[in-house]
Amino acid sequence: MTSESKVDQLIRKTLEVQPDFPKQGVYFLDIFPLFHDPAVIKSITDEIVQKIKELSPKATAIVALEARGFLFAPIVAMELGIKFVPIRKTGKLPGKVENFTYQLEYGQDTVEIQSGVLKESDSVVIFDDILATGGTASAAVSLLTKLNIPCSLCLFVIELSYLTGRAKLEESLKKQSGSHSTVIHSISLISAEEIDDIPKK
């Protein structure tokens, strides 16, 4: 069994589902039980580091998405000796920022990054805890594309394979300029049927 398979199994055993959160009828995949055991966090963090070394060996920055992407990314950046850069919702970052506004089902939202932190010479890994509908991750790609900053890897701890996140992300990646080839990788792929097997609180 590969290290990724072992971590995948560990994630599945530790996750919990919270029914009726944030509203009635919604089943929320809760990653916070992963953080209750330091050994679990170390295993996941080590696997993230290894995947970046494998799939994006020239990475110079890890760009994490608000908010749970921040739980892993600074540790990973420290281990790899690269920059940690947050992408946040509008109004959360001080100083001059660059932004990208994207459409939601009802209305719109905006993501921002601090100006000048990343250069066109950087090789960026976009990271988040879960790839679900792909809205924020796609917006992050679009924001970096707008700034002519190449994304070499989009990396997630968990991907909900029954949702449209990967397809949406692939569409955004097609708009990158140049001949950049970007890998999308998730450590744990969870189907709709497998969600039913995760313990409910």
Q: What is the number of helices?
A: 6
Q: Outline, from the CA principal axes?
A: globular
Strand percentage lies at 25-35%
CATH architecture: 3-Layer(aba) Sandwich
In CATH, what is the class? Answer: Alpha Beta
Distance separating the two termini: 30 Å
Strand order of the largest sheet: 5-6-4-3-7-8-9
Could you give the count of β-strands?
9
Q: Let me know the average pLDDT.
A: 93
CATH fold node name: Rossmann fold
Q: Would you write up a description of this structure?
A:
The chain has a single domain (3-195), classed as Rossmann fold. It has helices spanning 3-14, 38-55, 69-80, 135-146, 165-173, 192-195; strands at residues 16-19, 27-30, 61-65, 83-89, 97-103, 108-114, 124-131, 151-160, 183-190. The model has no long low-confidence stretch (mean pLDDT 93). The two termini are 30 Å apart. A hairpin with a 7-residue loop joins strand 1 (16-19) and strand 2. Helix 1 packs across helix 2 (38-55), helix 2 (38-55) packs across helix 3 (69-80) and helix 4 runs parallel beside helix 5. A 7-stranded mixed sheet has the order 5-6-4-3-7-8-9, with helices on both faces. The protein has a two-stranded antiparallel sheet with strand order 1-2. The chain is built from 6 helices and 9 strands; from the N terminus they run αββαβαββββαβαβα. 33% of the residues lie in helices and 30% in strands. By secondary structure, it is α/β, with parallel strands linked by helices. The chain is globular.
